[in-house]
């Protein structure tokens, strides 16, 4: 489904991604763990070209893009096959909840406004926000905003959902409602790539886990294997340290 | 003893001055529209760092902000016909324009557009740059084209930031249009001058014209409050 080959990213002289290779199969949920600054967000953002990767290959659903020679249409096709959920939600502040979810359907997929409204309202119902359709983002709690963020990504029916620390900006008591929604989305068979610091959540939801440090993938394996018996000492330390907290 | 004011003359002069109101409003509103276009274009040139154009537009903004409006009006009024004439005689271009029949109102409109455009440029640029980066990223991530992103997400948010500033500049422009009589445009100020010299009652007509400017500005301020409320309606706090 999604495949990244030998991906590098430099910010000026700083080598942030140092040859990343991984793939995610259809319907699989993969979490990326790793210490702060290891390049997790940069990796996700390179997949949909919010950051221009320096070199390597990104492939989604058989469409291979060599990042160095990526044209606008290639970038657009990667963006259309991915949906992104941001740490800061990034809802469009000037649009209502319903409009936030509809805009991709009407403006990008050219679906009629009536049809888009119907589809969006259904998705918003799924994330439990059917009674907030006409609210603006400022009028919602963080948890509600993030659920809209998830609905907005789901609306375009992407091949892969990318989550960048979807609960890190939330008050602790709001984390649960968002994690519940993400779990439901996973259950529906969506392909997902999640960066998170919620280790228990990652363990529960993931088919596989990737551990990154210093711009490289140190280890990857099934959730069970990574949590109970990681082969790399550094992974053990990281998981042990965070779980103990 | 003579009266301080000829109240009768003052009141009589109002309707005569108001007949020229369309000129004042026309130049102010017309140059606002043109300058929004200029300001937006130069702001985008600066934001996207378009080579060459970027240098030209910084030069333009710097020049306009560094020279008096009065001088700019003269430059446009005397300069443009000469430039057109030069192109006509040297290159045979622009032959369908007769510089002798261009109305002074056109020069006034141009001068004010050029002037206001430079000021709006900076306001618009900083308003666009004040929009959270996450808004741009979310727009790109869902696949909006750059134009859609700007029109549907960024401009509306930038506008609500810029409106107070835009409004102040527009109000200044309305008042500054009182300079246009120097190139022969008869706006409300020009009309007041004519009436004043005819009746030798300058104090009266200038009181009348100042009241008219004042009223226009109060109306515009009221309108701005409404427009701003509308533009910022999504910023209101929690309602439920
Ligand atoms: N736009 C940027 N310009 C320059 N350097 C950047 C930029 N974005 C990220 N970096 C650098 O790249 C490195 C990786 O950052 P990244 O945000 O990908 O880490 P992360 O693993 O997501 O960390 P965290 O867990 O704190 O979110 C960091 O050293 C960071 O300073
Ligand atoms: Mg990060």
How would you summarize what this structure contains?
Chain A is α/β, with parallel strands linked by helices and 245 residues long.
Question: How would you portray this structure in words?
Answer:
The complex is a heterodimer of chains A (245) and B (240). Chain A has helices spanning 40-47, 72-80, 97-108, 113-126, 142-155, 172-187, 199-205, 223-228, 233-244; strands at residues 2-11, 14-24, 29-33, 55-60, 63-66, 82-85, 160-164, 191-195, 208-213, 216-222. Chain A has 245 residues and is of the alpha/beta class. Chain A has a single domain, classed as P-loop containing nucleotide triphosphate hydrolases (Rossmann fold), CATH 3.40.50. The radius of gyration of chain A is 18 Å and the shape is globular. The two termini of chain A are 35 Å apart. By secondary structure, chain B is mainly alpha-helical. Chain B has one domain (7-230): MetI-like fold (Orthogonal Bundle). Chain B has 9 helices and no strands. The relative contact order of chain B is 0.15. The A-B interface holds A 48-50, 76, 79-80, 82-84, 86, 88-96, 103-104, 107-108, 135-139, 152-153, 156 and B 132, 134-135, 137-144, 148, 152-153, 156-157, 160, 233-240. Magnesium ion is lined by residues 40-41, 165 of chain A. Chain B: Belongs to the binding-protein-dependent transport system permease family. Chain B: Keywords: Amino-acid transport, Cell membrane, Membrane, Transmembrane, Transmembrane helix, Transport. Chain B: Residues 21-224 form the ABC transmembrane type-1 domain. Chain B: It comes from Neobacillus niacini.
């Amino acid at each position: 489904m999604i495949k990244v080959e030998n991906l590098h990213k430099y910010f000026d002289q700083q080598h942030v991604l140092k040859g990343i290779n991984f793939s995610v199969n259809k319907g699989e949920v993969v979490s990326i763990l790793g210490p702060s600054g290891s390049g997790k967000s940069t990796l996700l953002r390179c997949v949909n070209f919010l950051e221009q990767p320096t070199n390597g290959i990104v492939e989604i659903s058989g469409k291979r893009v060599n990042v160095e020679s990526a044209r606008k249409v290639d970038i657009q096709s990667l963006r259309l096959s991915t949906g992104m959920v941001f740490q800061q939600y990034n809802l469009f502040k000037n649009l209502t909840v319903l409009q936030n979810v509809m805009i991709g359907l009407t403006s990008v997929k050219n679906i009629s406004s009536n049809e888009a409204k119907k589809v969006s309202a259904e998705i918003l119902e799924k994330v439990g926000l059917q009674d907030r359709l006409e609210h603006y983002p400022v009028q919602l709690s963080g948890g509600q905003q993030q659920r809209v963020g998830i609905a907005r990504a789901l609306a375009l029916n992407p091949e892969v959902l990318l989550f960048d620390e979807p609960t890190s900006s939330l008050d602790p008591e709001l984390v649960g409602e968002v994690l519940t929604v993400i779990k439901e989305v996973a259950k529906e068979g969506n392909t997902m790539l999640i960066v998170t610091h919620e280790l228990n959540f990652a363990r529960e939801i993931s088919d596989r886990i990737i551990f990154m440090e210093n711009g490289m993938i140190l280890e990857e394996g099934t959730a069970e294997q990574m949590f109970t018996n990681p082969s790399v000492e550094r992974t053990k330390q990281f998981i042990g340290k965070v779980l103990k907290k | 003893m003579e009266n301080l004011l000829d109240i009768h003359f003052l009141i009589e002069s109002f309707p005569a001055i108001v007949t020229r109101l369309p000129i004042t409003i026309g130049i102010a509103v017309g140059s606002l529209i043109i300058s929004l276009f200029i300001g937006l274009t130069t702001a985008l040139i600066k934001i996207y760092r378009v080579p060459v154009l970027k240098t030209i537009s910084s030069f333009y903004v710097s020049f306009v902000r560094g020279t008096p409006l009065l001088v700019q009006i003269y430059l446009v009024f005397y300069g443009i016909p000469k430039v057109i004439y030069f192109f006509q005689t040297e290159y045979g271009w622009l032959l369908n324009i007769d510089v002798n029949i261009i109305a002074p109102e056109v020069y006034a409109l141009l001068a004010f557009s050029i002037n206001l455009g430079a000021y709006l440029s900076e306001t618009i640029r900083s308003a666009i740059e004040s929009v959270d980066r996450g808004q741009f990223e979310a727009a790109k991530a869902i696949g909006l084209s750059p134009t859609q992103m700007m029109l549907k997400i960024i401009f509306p948010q930038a506008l609500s930031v810029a409106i107070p500033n835009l409004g102040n500049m527009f109000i200044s422009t309305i008042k500054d249009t009182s300079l246009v009589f120097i190139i022969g445009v008869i706006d409300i100020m020009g009309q007041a001058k004519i009436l004043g010299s005819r009746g030798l009652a300058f104090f009266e007509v200038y009181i009348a014209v100042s009241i008219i400017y004042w009223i226009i500005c109060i109306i515009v301020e009221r309108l701005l409050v409404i427009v701003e409320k509308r533009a910022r309606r999504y910023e209101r706090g929690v309602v439920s």
